[in-house]
Amino acid sequence: MSTGLDRTLAALADPARRRAVELLGERPRSAGELARDLGLAPPAMSRHLRALKAGGLVEDGHPDFDARVRIYRLKHGATDELKAWLAATEERWTHQLAAFKRHVEAASE
């Protein structure tokens, strides 16, 4: 497993961060909006956003009208490596389960 994938999985390990990703999937939001929607204190939300950024899942920027505000959004292509790993893992499981099924069916004949 690659370091990038490890960081992504670590970032997604927390339920609050997964919910933040779901909310950001709807639209970009400020940290304050996310904290309110998740029922978290601002310092806790900041820690979660740092983890999501470190995991390569989100990015932030400032709107043109207010440089004091940061708007967070999902990073394009951030889950590509995760999706590829999941697809390969599913393929291995499917192959192993099919082989196990053949073995059980052959043993019961």
TrEMBL record:
GO terms for molecular function: DNA-binding transcription factor activity. Residues 1-92 form the HTH arsR-type domain. Gene3D superfamilies: Winged helix-like DNA-binding domain superfamily/Winged helix DNA-binding domain (1.10.10.10). It holds the Pfam family HTH_5. CDD domains: HTH_ARSR. This is Transcriptional regulator, ArsR family. It comes from Sphingopyxis indica.
